[in-house]
Write a structure and sequence with these properties.
Shape: globular
Radius of gyration: 28 Å
Length: 570
């Protein structure tokens, strides 16, 4: 397993390159913006779906209320992600736009949402059908986002707009400037919708399902099962709801084979159909798409990263009941190159093993349609008529999934542990009670490379200038950066320098960065140096990356911190 981990780590640079693609980053950030909705709604779906598994009946009024909350949160997450992803992508595009050219992110969100509705939703009896408002409509959301943002970019760059007299207030003028890009974006989505409905008689959101359905003939073979349960996680990995793309074309077989298995069993035969609805739920999607049942357990018991342990504890109960969105988007697994192989491989291995148990070892095929939220191992035992061999199958699947996921989890864990250790070391050192370094008693501070960073003895001086210097300090969460920002503010008072320092978090700094003259990166975000350098060069701002020991020393020495930044700009 160590060999596999080492091979994965060797490709870390490649993984990082993929993950920095602006379209993938926009999808990831768009999902993260919707995480409160996903986590909130998962509570209510569990409350509604679990009691029937154990034969309990929820009062109809309460059940309706639980599903209503789910329908109006997770049930419209596709529409919400259409807006958040468009906003994130527009923000990335703006950082690469020519001077004076800016995409209106609010207008983009509105246009992308309208485009999503055109692509994914059908209107019947004066009402919108809700089937594709949620995760089933994610594909339509992304297509609408990519079309909309690029259309806005084209119109803004080529100045295709309605120009108003300069006397018109800016807010009103902006609305008119956005008329053309908004119209073009929505019209393109409308044309795609017409084409899909004309050619295939389905909305765009169902196109892939329609096109793939002929491929599923003979799907009950080993190859067919593996192919199906490769496609489902593959789609989900890029943010498209895999089951809604693949399973509709299999519906007749999934439910027909279940009925056939039960009939064969009651007639005294061996129910041998593997391709059934619950076979997919409890074997191919054990713990949800990607066969993630074992992953929270791996995170809790075997990982050292606090992030992964926390995600494991928060997601273990939902994942047991096949609600794995909290895990997919919080770890994250979706769009995380470290998890692509296990996320696709584990379901394939599971269905091949399950098929072998049915075809060769004589285990019964699945004969009932149990609630999809039934925990996989329990559902497998119940669905095969409580055969002892089904218990063995469940144990085998968990071991196989563990073996597949563990090396990739471990490789990702090492990356997170290194990042967390650096942050913890900084924070721990900063929280120690250390006598303040004053001009009367401080000596020269030397960094690990034995290079003099700051002179802070009695003879040290800082040349006072009249020009105000605005410094932005960035870290991951604006906590560590606040320590250096505070030191700079204190040092400015001591030296009389006109320095203003503010702390910020990477990812939320783009809007405020133009207001500063100098950006200082804390060690934990040094990996983003190249990306930020492009922005600072464009704005004519100086960028500095600091080392761990260097950063700590600067936070402890206000006067030295001032001299450090003044040396950088002077």
């Amino acid at each position: 397993m160590n060999v596999i981990i080492q091979q994965i780590e060797k490709r870390q640079a490649f993984f990082q390159k993929i993950s920095k693609n602006i379209y993938l980053m926009a999808i990831k950030d768009g999902f993260l913006a919707a995480m409160p909705v996903i986590l909130f709604s998962s509570i209510f779906i569990l409350c509604a779906a679990i009691p029937p598994i154990f034969g309990l009946t929820i009062p109809s009024g309460l059940e309706g209320w639980l599903w209503k909350i789910y329908d109006f949160t997770m049930g419209i997450v596709g529409m919400l992600v259409a807006g958040t992803t468009a906003r994130c992508l527009a923000g990335s595009m703006n950082r690469k736009m020519p001077d004076g050219k800016v995409i209106n992110v609010t207008s983009v969100m509105l246009a992308a949402t309208c485009g999503f509705l055109l692509l994914a939703i059908t209107k019947a009896d004066s009402a919108f059908t809700a089937d594709y408002m949620g995760t089933k409509g994610i594909l339509s959301a992304f297509i609408s986002d990519f079309i909309t943002v690029n259309m806005y970019k084209f119109c803004v760059i080529h100045d295709i707009t309605i120009k108003m007299p300069k006397e018109v207030p800016g807010t009103i003028a902006q609305n008119f400037r956005d008329v053309f890009p908004f119209s073009f974006s929505v019209l393109v989505c409308a044309i795609i919708d017409i084409a899909a409905r004309t050619a295939l008689n389905v909305p765009f959101g169902e196109v892939f399902s329609k096109l793939l359905s002929p491929l599923f003939e003979g799907a009950e073979s080993y190859f067919g099962l593996a192919f199906i349960w490769f496609l489902i996680p593959l789609f989900w990995f890029v943010g498209v709801h895999g089951p809604s793309v693949v399973k509709p074309g299999l519906s007749a077989a999934l439910y027909g084979n279940t009925e056939a298995n039960l009939r064969i069993f009651t007639e005294g035969g061996h129910p041998s159909h593997a391709l059934t609805e619950n076979f997919g739920n409890f074997i191919g999607e054990l713990g949800g798409t990607g066969a993630t049942f074992i992953v929270p357990i791996i995170f809790i018991l075997f990982m050292r990263s606090k992030q992964l342990k926390t995600v494991g504890k928060a997601s273990i109960i939902p994942v047991m009941f096949a609600v794995n969105e909290p895990l997919l988007f919080a770890a994250p697994i979706i769009l995380n190159p470290y998890f692509f192989i296990p996320f696709c491989l584990a379901p394939m291995a599971n269905v091949l093993i399950g098929k072998f148990f049915i075809s060769v070892l004589g285990m019964n095929g699945f004969m009932y349609v149990l609630p999809w939220a039934t925990p996989g191992p329990i559902g497998t035992v119940m669905n095969t008529g409580f055969q002892p061999i089904s218990i063995i199958l469940s144990i085998v699947l968990l071991f196989v999934d563990f073996a597949i996921y563990y090396p990739f989890c471990k490789a990702y864990d090492r990356v997170l542990v290194a990042q967390e250790a650096e942050r913890v070391e900084e924070i721990d050192e900063l929280e120690e009670v250390v006598p303040a370094l004053s001009p009367a008693n401080a000596a020269s501070i030397i960094d690990q490379d034995e290079t003099v960073l700051v002179e802070s003895d009695s003879s040290a001086s800082v040349t006072t200038t009249e020009k105000e210097l605005k410094v932005l300090v960035l870290c991951a969460g604006a906590g560590t950066s606040a320590m250096l920002a505070n030191a700079l503010e204190e040092g400015a008072k001591e030296t009389g320098e006109h320095v203003i320092a503010k702390a910020g978090a990477y990812g939320s700094h783009y809007d405020i960065m133009p207001k500063f003259d100098l950006v200082v990166l804390a060690p934990q975000v040094n990996s983003y140096y190249d990306d930020i350098k492009k922005d600072t060069d464009k704005l004519g701002i100086k960028l500095i990356a600091t080392k761990g020991a260097e950063y700590i020393k600067l936070t402890r020495n206000p006067t030295g911190a001032i001299k450090f930044v003044m040396d950088q700009v002077g």
